[in-house]
Amino acid sequence: MSQDNMIKLECKECKKLNYFSRKNKKTLKNRLELKKYCKHCKKHTLHKETK
Predict the structure, then answer these.
(1) Reading across the β-sheet that carries 6-11, which strands appear in turn?
(2) CA distances from 4 to 37, 43, 46, 51 (A)
(3) How far is 25 from 22, CA to CA, in rounded Å?
(4) What residues does 36 pair with on adjacent strands?
(5) Domain regions of the chain by residue span
(6) Residues 6+ apart with CB under 8 A from 30
(7) DSSP single-letter state for residue 32
(8) Do the Cβ atoms of 36 and 18 come closer than 8 Å?
(9) Burial of 8 (0-12, 13-18, 19+ CB in 10 A)
(10) Half-sphere exposure at residue 16, Cβ-oriented, CA atoms within 13 angstroms
(11) What is the Cα–Cα distance from 15 to 1, expressed in whole angstroms?
(12) Domain 3-50 is in which class?
């Protein structure tokens, strides 16, 4: 994977980095928010893209 397209997803509840993904930065300008499973909270929570 290309490093310039990589993003980090952080749990909004416990503030831990759980996922790494990629996105097309030309088409998606704002920050990505996905509902994913957090292994620290042990439930599905909202994950937001970080820098």
Answers:
(1) 17-22, 6-11, 43-50, 33-38
(2) 25, 30, 23, 11
(3) 9
(4) 45
(5) 3-50
(6) none
(7) P
(8) yes
(9) middle
(10) 10
(11) 25
(12) mainly beta
